[in-house]
Design brief:
Blueprint lengths: L9 E7 L1 E2 L11 E2 L6 H18 L3 E9 L7 H14 L1 E12 L7 H7 L3 E7 L3 H6 L6 H11 L5 E8 L6 H12 L5 E6 L7 H7 L8 H17 L4 E3 L2 E3 L7 H7 L3 E5 L4 E6 L2 E7 L3 H11 L3 E7 L1 H12 L6 E2 H5 L7 H9 L3 E4 L2 E4 L1 H4 L2 H8 L2
Parallel strand pairs: 1-4, 1-11, 2-3, 4-5, 5-6, 6-7, 7-8
Antiparallel strand pairs: 8-10, 9-10, 12-13, 13-14, 15-17, 16-17
Helix pairs in contact: 1-2, 1-10, 2-3, 6-8
The structure holds iron/sulfur cluster (SF4).
């Protein structure tokens, strides 16, 4: 078992579960914002943070991530209060990354978010084509996304944009055009996701009814290859399966904590966390529904719903699965220290097939292996 290692980072994730409208592809823990009073949930999140501070003790926070849902629906005042509260509970590193996920519709508040301390904006652009935005159920147009990007310019240390590809009817040429326009926007970071059809999302029913068909595996693989080539040529190579940065300084520190299997507190309905306390590591999940979350806070002073202890092999498997996602891969010694022996036969076979490389004691996916990351993790760390 290993103790908390500050080198892997310590983050705070806040889940704000409300959205102006629920997108048909989304299976996150989200709820329509409507005209509801968000003050009770906001207060509960502050109390939950206090509950976690009592359990972690003093630590240095290397990243704060306000995600969701749509945290840009929060007011500048709420974001400011939240960041200040985290800073009153733990020591926040002076260079800590403070990210807020935003929808383009909320660009009038970007100045207030920057003043509150947010230094990284992750903007949900999703597409630069109005028809595709409509199909994806988004509330903004391509023009509004560009306006939002303009509003973000100069206000944050780093700006990231999210885009979705493999949308039905989108040809390889369409995506090439859209991606080259996205690359020309000058963002520091791109998160590029294939449209996936998740059981909890409205699109799942549409596909079941055969209203339309998702891209085939071959089409998706071709789109993925084009994405890798174009981003690399534009100076934003992949540093993780779906993430691309203009230089190491623009890589996501927060997601880096997940990929390095560091520690993070997760607050807000359904938020996940991982905490190493003493020699034990816990996988924690807050109560999912906002009402249940408020109830937990009221009765226990903390929002968790599920707490599982991860044994050494469970921790090692996470290190394999997470480490394979990034271009540095994972260190064999790191998982062996947790008493996991990799399946040598499968490693040799995957190397021979061109999906894996083993060098300097690290196991790394090749570009061909990246699309099969989850399956490969299960094969080498059964
Ligand atoms: S995709 Fe984003 S904006 Fe749309 S419902 Fe999901 S969390 Fe909300």
């Amino acid at each position: 078992m290993s103790e908390f290692d500050p080198q892997r980072g310590f983050g705070v994730y806040v889940h704000w579960p409300y959205c102006a409208r629920i997108c048909p592809y989304c299976d996150f823990n989200v709820y329509a914002a409507k005209a509801r009073d968000t003050a009770p949930l906001f207060d509960a999140i502050l109390r939950d943070l206090e509950g976690w501070r009592a359990r972690t003790g003093e630590r240095e926070v290397t990243s704060i991530f306000l995600g969701g849902g749509t945290p840009s629906l929060m007011t500048g005042e709420q974001v400011s209060q939240l960041i200040a509260h985290i800073g009153s509970l733990w020591r926040v590193a002076p260079e800590a990354e403070i990210t807020l996920e935003a929808n383009p519709d909320d660009h009038a508040r970007f100045g207030a978010f920057a003043e509150a301390g947010v230094n990284r904006l992750s903007l949900g652009v999703q597409s630069l084509d109005d028809e595709r935005l409509k199909f994806l159920g988004r509330t903004h147009s391509a023009g509004q996304a560009l306006e939002a990007l303009e509003a973000a310019r100069g206000k944050f240390r780093s700006v990231s944009i999210d885009m979705i590809y493999a949308v039905p009817g989108q040809s390889l040429e369409d995506w090439r055009g859209e991606l080259s326009r996205a690359l020309a926007l000058g963002a520091d970071h791109l998160s590029l996701y294939e449209l996936s059809i998740e059981p909890g999302a409205a699109f799942f029913q549409a596909v079941k009814r055969k209203s339309w068909s998702p891209a085939s595996d071959d089409e998706a693989a071709e789109l993925f290859d084009v994405t890798q080539a174009m981003t690399e040529a534009a100076g934003l190579p992949a540093y993780e399966i779906s993430n691309h940065a203009r230089g190491a300084e623009h890589r996501s520190v927060h997601n880096g904590i997940y990929w390095k299997c560091g520690d993070w507190v997760g607050v807000g309905p359904g938020a996940h966390g991982r905490l190493t306390i003493g020699a034990k590591r816990w996988a924690v999940e807050a109560a999912e529904k906002p009402g249940a979350y408020l109830h937990h806070l009221k009765s226990n002073g903390i929002g968790w719903g599920v707490v599982d202890e991860l044994d050494a092999v469970g921790q090692a498997r996470e290190r394999v699965a997470m480490g394979l996602r990034v271009v540095e891969g994972f260190a064999v010694s790191d998982v062996e220290a947790l008493r996991l022996k990799l399946n040598a036969e499968n490693v040799t076979m995957l190397v021979a097939l061109g999906f894996l490389v083993v060098r300097d004691g690290r196991v790394v996916l090749t570009p061909e292996g990246r699309l099969r990351a989850d399956r490969i993790a299960a094969e080498i760390a059964p």
